[in-house]
Amino acid sequence: MDQSANIVVGSHIWVGDLESVWIDGVVLNITGEDAEIQTSDGRQVVVKLSNLYLRDAEAPATGIDDMTRMSYLNEPGLLHNLATRYGINEIYTYTGNILIAINPFQSIEKLYDACVMEQYKGAPIGELKPHVFAIADVAYRAMINYGKSNSILVSGESGAGKTETTKMLMCYLAFLGGHAASEGRTVEQQVLESNPVLEAFGNAKTVRNNNSSRFGKFVEIQFDKNGRISGAAIRTYLLERSRVCQISDPERNYHCFYLLCAAPPQEREKYKLGNPKSFHYLNQSNCYELTGVNDAHDYLATKRAMDIVGICEQEQDAIFRVVAAILHLGNIDFAKGEESDSSFVKDEESKFHLDMTAELLMCDPQALEDALCKRMMITPEDVIKKSLDPLGATVSRDGLAKTIYSRLFDWLVGKINVSIGQDPGSEYLIGVLDIYGFESFKNNSFEQFCINYTNEKLQQHFNQHVFKMEQEEYVREEIDWSYIEFVDNQDVLDLIEKKPGGIIALLDEACILPKSNHESFAQKLYQIFKNHKRFIKPKLARSEFAIVHYAGDVLYQSEHFLDKNKDYVVPEHQDLLSASKCSFVAGLFPPFPEDMAKSSKFSSIGSRFKLQLQQLMETLNSTEPHYIRCVKPNTVLQPAIFENATVMQQLRSGGVLEAVRIKCAGYPTHRTFSEFLSRFGVLAPEVLEGDYEEKVACGKILEKMGLKGYLIGTSKIFLRGNLMAELDAKRTKRHTTAALAILKHIRTRIDRKKYIAKKRGCVLLQSYWRGIRARELYEIKRREAAAIKIQKTIRGYLARKLHVKTRISTVVLQAGIRAMIARCEYRHRRRQVKAAIVIQSSHMGVGIDALQSIR
Ligand SMILES: Nc1ncnc2c1ncn2[C@@H]1O[C@H](COP(=O)(O)OP(=O)(O)OP(=O)(O)O)[C@@H](O)[C@H]1O
Fold first, then answer.
1. Are 507 and 521 in contact (CB under 8 A)?
2. How far is it, in rounded angstroms, from Cα 657 to Cα 631?
């Protein structure tokens, strides 16, 4: 979907990034076809507009529960949403009705507790957080309410968590439809316990998962009319046979081999087993133990689980005898015989293992050696016994090991089915499919071809379902659905399975024709499909071919296609083991029916698988499907690491993006009226102010915008292709204009505020300064006054002092002068007196003498 036309300056977008696949940014500038982007990590890049995707800047920080509700359904948006949720331990997210489960690689507290089961019981989907229990609950309720069988399809690449998810589904279904513990060995208990048994024999450590299921599985849980589990059946698909004899470092063979090597000593002695390092089928890799796994403990646990699923002690003994026999068989080596192209058991050690194999399989050692080293050739005249060279004998040995193991596995599945028991009167069932996801490696062989074929089939089923669901929503909303286009992959399926002329049919033909080999098979493909748009002949290829699958192109190497397609039990092996004295072993190799024995014993694995798939599809088509897409967040199998590229690849191949594409083909965006109004009401405020019904208001807004390509349902608006982006672009423009106006006002206000503040500052500064100056002046004046005062005082003091001094001097002077005057006067008077007296005395003689005596 090209959204570039709606990208404007200021748009929030996703831009491709080498490191993190996508990075968010904002458009700074647009020049022609190029946009200048400011990325969230601080860079500025120039990118073609067509390489940008719009981002919803208003999406909640904790992500969106259901990704179909995202405003922009594009790859980066989905990826970011999942990463955000994974970061807060929300491992489940819906994409419509599909549940995406991201492997946490750690147990999340209280995620699967009984109380959580209780919460999800009967809760409508969407009411609680997305959960695997919600899907199981919906399936169960749909089954009870509509009386229709349901199925849950769990897919994903190896290590994505399919098996764990399937176990959770089973537990929840057992919780809903189970029986009381007092009812003894219940069906659900047996179904749940069948897991460890199947895992011991069908799981192995691979580089991608320490406990990888090497087979596909469809578990049918049957229910009675009361919704109680009444029976179950397990169907398995395509066990990886080659692993029995060939493993690469650091992988392991099937767990059961290591469990048996870790069994209690008396049992190991019984089967003459020891260190796994001594067995060729185990020592091709250096990995023997798994961290956190105790094989000795698991051996006992597997036996206990076998007890529960109804495998008796003798059968258990026979099973482990066969497992031990395979290990011994792998240690038989061959040397070149005397006759040309002949071989014999190489040495004493190989002889010991041959004898042990024969003993454990309860067959004749010589017959075993012959079966390994010789072949019957039927000519028109006679039956000739032909010797095999050492390489041929080794191939024969490995072929026998693979056949025995796959028969043993099939027996186990059959036995589990018989002992759990099917309910012929069952009303309906819930099927859980745990199947390998799309695979594309450096080398892709027949296994990948079958796996990808399965995924194409499931993808078609998925597309049809998603398409149907879309249709149903349109019908519910009472709108025309003829616009929805159906994305179909029938052409790839025709290429693979068409009869005659499809790749499988041509492969079968090549397997039957005597002189055919992988090169002639490939040449035939090149010739027949040279114009097929889903088939590619790589340049210079002699035996490789590529198929354009829905999830991408896969290049297949056809080298081992013919061998791997032949499900051919060598008659010598068949005769040897059907004659075993052990009824269990003989039972694994029932004699061929008479008519088949005469005809060709070739049976095509590809065709059988195709038939199995057809049956599976028939079953699935008769059920209401639910999808769970498991996603592996990183390739290092560690918690809390979300690798964008790894997840993106899985979203593509898991069909999640296809589902999104189907959605996009019609009217991908569905919004309830109120959601639409709250987001786009800003485009027509007058409509919001008017007293309209929500539906009418939505219509008015769309009318005002003059847009085409929308439908109005009963509760939702359906928007076609880019309409959401167009509306958002208009909204962004409106927001930008509004923002500019707001900005203008804010700037004016800020500037005014600044001016006033500055002015106030100046006045303050001035008054402060004036204050300082006035204070200084005042101080000067005060000092002046003080000085004057001091001067005055001093002067006064001095004047007073002078005055006092002068006065005192004056007084002293006066006093002196007065005293002097007085004395002068006195003296004058005395002289006067004396003169008088003299006069008197002279005049009054006696009187003066008398006066003088009185004094
Ligand atoms: N929901 C979960 N919670 C905790 N750990 C999980 C969960 N799902 C998966 N795992 C972890 O991831 C590992 C791989 O999961 P699982 O075996 O289910 O993958 P798978 O998709 O079935 O792989 P394969 O196709 O190889 O069998 C598990 O062993 C477990 O450790």
1. yes
2. 13
Q: Which atom of ligand 1 is nearest to the CA of 107?
A: 4
Residue of 202 and 677 predicted with greater confidence = 202
Residue 248 falls in the annotated catalytic set: no
Ligand 1 near 212 CB (within 6 A): yes
**Of 164, 195, 432, 632, best ligand 1 pocket probe by most atoms within 8 Å of the beta carbon:** 164
pLDDT greater at residue 427 or residue 205: 205
163 CB under 6 A from ligand 1? yes
112 CB within 6 A, ligand 1: no
Q: Are 59 and 70 in contact (CB under 8 A)?
A: yes
Residue 349 a catalytic site member: no
Among 11, 212, 426, 455, the one annotated catalytic: 212
Q: What percent of the chain is modeled with pLDDT above 70?
A: 93
Contacts of 512 (CB under 8 A, 6+ apart): 600, 602
Concerning whether 552 is annotated as a catalytic residue, the answer is no
Which atom, in ligand 1's list, is nearest to the CA of 630?
A: 21
Q: Tell me if 666 is assigned to a ligand binding site.
A: no
Residue 695 is labelled as binding a ligand: no
439 flagged as catalytic? yes
Per-residue model confidence as pLDDT tens digits over 332-387:
999 988 777 888 898 899 999 999 999 999 999 999 999 999 887 766 666 677 88
* Annotation marks residue 674 as catalytic: no
* pLDDT at residue 315, as a whole number: 95
Q: How far is the CA of 749 from the centre of ligand 1 (A)?
A: 60
Closest CA to 568 of 604, 516, 517, 593: 604
pLDDT digits (tens, 9 = 90+) for 787-842: 888 888 888 888 888 888 887 888 788 778 878 887 777 777 777 777 777 777 76
313 tagged catalytic = no
pLDDT in tens, 107-143: 999 999 999 999 999 887 778 999 999 999 999 998 9
For the segment(s) 453-576+603-618, the CATH number from 1.10.730.10, 3.20.20.70, 1.20.58.530, 3.40.190.10 is 1.20.58.530
Residue 630 CA to ligand 1 centre (angstroms): 9
- Span 11-20, mean pLDDT? 87
> How many alpha carbons lie under 13 Å from residue 663 in its C-beta half-sphere?
24
In short, whether 103's Cβ falls inside 6 Å of ligand 1 is yes
Strands (E), 492-549: 535-536, 544-549
Fold of the domain spanning 1-55: SH3 type barrels. (2.30.30)
pLDDT of 596 strictly over 60 = no
Q: Which residue in the list 437, 502, 655, 713 is annotated as catalytic? A: 437
User: In the prediction, which pLDDT does 268 show?
Assistant: 93
**Which ranges in 287-389 belong to alpha helices (H)?**
295-308, 313-330, 348-361, 365-373
| Probe target for ligand 1 pocket from 105, 206, 629, with the most ligand atoms within 8 Å of CB | 105
Provide the ipTM.
Answer: 0.99
**Candidate CATH numbers 3.50.50.60, 3.40.50.2000, 3.30.70.1590, 3.40.630.30; the one for domain 667-721:** 3.30.70.1590
| CA 660 remoteness from chain centre | 18
Average pLDDT value for residue range 42-58 = 89
Domain residue limits, the chain = 1-55, 453-576+603-618, 667-721
The residues, any chain, with a CB within 8 Å of residue 735's CB and separated by 6 or more, are: 682
Are 150 and 430 spatial neighbours (Cβ–Cβ below 8 Å)? Answer: yes
- What distance in angstroms lies between residue 659's CA and the mean position of ligand 1's atoms? 24
Catalytic entry in 158, 419, 672, 841: 158
- Helix (H), strand (E) at residue 387: strand 383-387
Active site residue 213: yes
Residue 699 annotated among the catalytic residues of the structure: no
CA of 327 to the centre of ligand 1 (A): 28
* Predicted pLDDT at 67: 86
Helix, coil or strand: residue 272: coil
